[in-house]
Structures are given as structure tokens and as C-alpha cells.
Specification:
The structure is a homodimer.
Chain A lengths: L1 E5 L3 H12 L3 E5 L3 H9 L5 E3 L10 E4 L6 H8 L8 E4 L5 H10 L3 E6 L20 E5 L6 H13 L3 E4 L2 H27 L4 H10 L2 H7 L6 H10 L1 H23 L3 H15 L4
Parallel strand pairs in A: 1-2, 1-4, 2-3, 4-5, 5-6, 7-8
Antiparallel strand pairs in A: 6-7
């Protein structure tokens, strides 16, 4: 079976390594000739080219570009595609992608393998990146069942834990556990930096330890990524942020009113309620 | 030199081990006879007793009880104390403690060694717990200088990084980097648990990974500790929470208004602004 991968960075490259190991013929497309060369040298792909026509006979094509390029890439790809080809993506937001892409191509299925490292690019590609990681597949009501089944089988062969849901449910879930934490965490740093007394700011910097480090980690991450999730998952993220603010007002009120019993109850709920997320 | 330690848990016990190693005579007081015995067996103290009269000739007494017991313990201790004795504490909030204790005892100096582990009790005591950790000393204008100097020297001999500031500045700094993160993090868990659609809640639990885990860690911690910091540091924590909410409104507005350029700028500031806290 021929698998095409467009975009040979961390995700695309790691998919190529694993799929090659599992007997698939892997065809890679990158915009840069040098990346194609490296992907061949590293054994990520069997063949690589800067031209999408390489994928004309692929059984499935996985678009692994940055999220903003998924739709334009599919548009460019379609003239080269055979009718049988299933197309999927790896974008971290699904609703706007699936909406546009399924209009362009019947056999498009949204996908989101939730794995990564801090590294980027073809050199970061590694084996078994998706092992035990969630792989969310977001078909629509009219997505062909056999296409969904094929993508699911591939994800299982990668060792991933496969979940199926609507694009909208995916986006609401990741807004809660991935995009909201970024904003909550960034806003913690922002609040500390907003301290107007330079002595207290300096002291805070000196005294900060693991609690601050962990809570602020994702808020100190890649700014482009934060903006991207806000743009593409705007509705679900706003919904989470507004809910967060309302819940925060309750905590503030309890501290203002010295309602320690209720505050303790909340902290007991958050302590035990965190466990099923781990 | 004789050092008295009241409360032989993680902090008191670890102080005893280190101070003994450095040639001090360590006298321990615990409410429980069994803890006194264990502290002697483990080499934490030279002598131990359930009676505060053991400390009648100590040069310095370190109160290592839970924060709510610091003032009552000092009141009980005073009838036994020699006039020369310096008294300090290890509480994580300083303003209300220092205010009350310095009225009771001239030679009281607030202290806060910022080290710990997840463990508690005399069995958790360990050597070098305070090495490279901040040790904040919060004298008032009228605290005798030689008393401050002695406490500072002891903290330096523990290998700690010593900072001096007012109790109020200490409490504002720890509100920002320690108490605010707990509430921000707890409120993230609370928001996720508040998701009304059980399918999305379940999906969120399945998809949550390291970003959620780190951001939610301190919010899933000891509820008693969270309530205690809110009670004792109420004013500074509320100030931080209200500032946090105001800053959050700015982020929400930028996402609502699709003001991506400004949002990116904020995320660039939080990325680089986090570094001096690490």
C-alpha cells in the first residue's frame, strides 16, 4: 500500500519512519529539495519529490503541513489525485479544516495524532512517536466508512490509542485541555510581569520555583502556536475562557467573603477531579 | 551554640539534621513522645522532649509548626525563654505572623525557607533540603540587627540563598509566584470538570497530556494548604487574583476581536518574560 506524506517535519517524518517499518511504501513531498534528500537518507521515505504528482497513485495521503497550509495544499493536490485516494491531515484543530476539505474531496477525513516533542523539522523525526498517544479521527456523517476504517487501522498499527468523534467535539475537548491551559498559563506570566513594584518583581523572580515553573510552562511556549490555536479554534477557546472567568469569579468571591469551607470543598474536588485526566 | 526546634516534621527535622552536622547542639520539641524518640534515633536532635522548658537556654528557637500554630506556640514558649533567645519561624506567609509575634517577643524575626518535598513528618526529614533554595528573612525596622545577622548566618550555613525584605513584600511576591498559581491551576481543573456534555468531558480526560498535567499540578494539590494560604495571605492573593482577571479580560477581548497581532505580541512577552523566573 502506498502512503503519501506532504510535509516532512517532526510529524510527517515520524509517520514516514513508522509506516516504512510496517511495510508501507512511503512517498514524501516537501517544498524543499534538501528536505527530500534528508528524508531519503534518514530512511523516512522510499521516494521523495518537491512535486505533488509523485502522489498520483497513493492509497492514502497524509497532509502534515502547518495548519494554515492544509486547505491550500489539498487544493494544489487534487489535480494530481486518483479517485481512490483517501486524504487526511494532522492539524490540531478540526472543525474549519474538515468543513473546507470535505467539500473539496469526498474521501477527506480529519485526523489529529496528539504527539510531539519540543523539536521541529525533518531532523526531529523519530520512531514510535505515536505509540500510546491519542489519535483522534473526526469523520462526518457522509464520510465513506471504509476510508475511516483504513485510517483507523493505520493509527492502530502506529500503536496509537484511537478515538472517533465529530470535529466539533474534538475542538471543544482540546480547547479545554490544550488551548485553555496555554492562555491560563500565559496570563499567569503576564500578571506577574505586570507587578509595578520593581523590588517585588525581582523578589518574585528570585523566589519562583517548581510550582510557578510548571504552571507557566505552556504559557511560555511558541507564540505562533498560541495565535494559531486562537484563530482556528476561536469559538471553542472563547467558550472555555468565558467559563474559566466565571469559575474564577466564584473562587475570588469565596476568598473575599472568607468562605473557607466552600473553598476547601472546591480544592478537594479539583484534587480528586484531576486524576481521570492523568 | 544551642538551637531549639519546635515541630519535628519535614522542615524541622531537616533543619535539625543539617544544623547538627554543622556543629550546633540541637534541642527538639514535639507534641508526641514517639516523634521525640524517632528524632533522636535518626540523629535529627541531640535531645528531645515534649516540654518546651527544654529550650530555656537556647540561643535561637525555630518554630516549625503548621502556620496556624506559630502564634499559640510562641505564647506557650515565652514563659520558658531566656531574654537572650532569638525566635524565628518557617511559615509560608509572613505579615500576620510577624505582626503578632514581634509584639510578643522583641527578638522575633520572620523566616521562610522555601524548600520542601511531597512528603511530610519526621520520617521525611533529609539532609541538604535547603541547599540552593531561597531563605527569606523578614525583619522589621526595630528588629535587633545582631539577631538578623545570626539568622542570616545560619541560613547561609545551610547552603540557602538568603533574601531580606519586609513581611509585606514577601507576601506579595509569594502571592504572585506561589499562591496565585494554585488558584489559577485549580480553576483550570474546575472549568474542565464543569463541562456539561459527558462525551466531551470523557474525551477531554482521554486526550489530556503533559500540557494539562503541568498546568493543573499545583491546583490538584493539598486542599488544606490552599485554604491556609488564602486565609493567611488573603489581601495579597486577592490583589493578584483581581489583577489576573483584568489581564485575562484583555486576552479574551483580543481573541474575540481577532486582534492576532496584539495577541502574538503578548505571547512573545510571556515567552521571554518567563525566563528570569526560572
Amino acid at each position: 500500500m502506498e502512503v503519501g506524506i506532504i510535509g516532512l517535519g517532526l510529524i510527517g517524518g515520524s509517520l514516514g519512519l513508522d509506516l516504512g517499518d510496517r511495510g508501507f511504501t512511503v512517498l514524501g513531498v516537501s517544498r524543499r529539495e534538501s528536505t527530500c534528500q534528508r528524508a531519503i537518507e534518514k530512511g523516512i521515505v522510499d521516494r521523495a519529490n518537491i512535486n505533488l504528482s509523485l502522489l498520483s497513485n497513493a492509497d492514502i495521503v497524509i497532509i502534515c503541513t502547518p495548519i494554515g497550509l492544509i486547505v491550500p495544499t489539498l487544493k494544489e493536490l487534487i489535480p494530481h489525485l486518483s479517485k481512490k485516494t483517501i486524504v487526511t491531515d494532522v492539524g490540531s484543530v478540526k472543525t474549519p479544516i474538515v468543513e473546507k476539505c470535505s467539500k473539496l474531496w469526498d474521501k477527506f477525513i480529519g485526523g489529529h495524532p496528539m504527539a510531539g516533542t519540543a523539536e521541529q523539522g525533518v531532523e526531529a523525526a523519530q520512531r514510535d512517536l505515536f505509540k500510546d498517544a491519542p489519535y483522534v479521527i473526526t469523520p462526518r456523517a457522509n464520510t465513506p466508512k471504509d476510508s475511516v476504517k483504513l485510517l483507523e487501522e493505520i493509527a492502530i498499527r502506529l500503536g496509537a490509542k484511537v478515538y472517533q468523534c465529530t470535529p466539533e467535539d474534538h475542538d471543544r475537548a482540546v480547547a479545554l485541555i490544550s488551548h485553555l491551559p496555554v492562555m491560563v498559563s500565559a496570563n499567569l506570566i503576564k500578571t506577574c510581569l505586570g507587578e509595578e513594584d520593581p523590588l517585588i518583581l525581582k523578589l518574585a523572580q528570585n523566589l519562583a520555583s517548581s510550582g510557578f515553573r510548571d504552571t507557566s510552562r505552556v504559557g511560555g511556549g511558541n507564540p505562533e502556536l498560541g495565535v494559531m490555536m486562537s484563530q482556528y479554534n476561536q469559538k471553542a477557546l472563547l467558550r472555555s475562557l468565558l467559563e474559566y472567568r466565571q469559575q474564577l469569579d466564584q473562587i475570588i468571591e469565596q476568598i473575599e467573603q472568607e468562605n473557607w469551607q466552600d473553598l476547601k470543598q472546591i480544592l478537594e474536588i479539583t484534587k480528586s477531579g484531576r486524576v481521570p485526566f492523568l
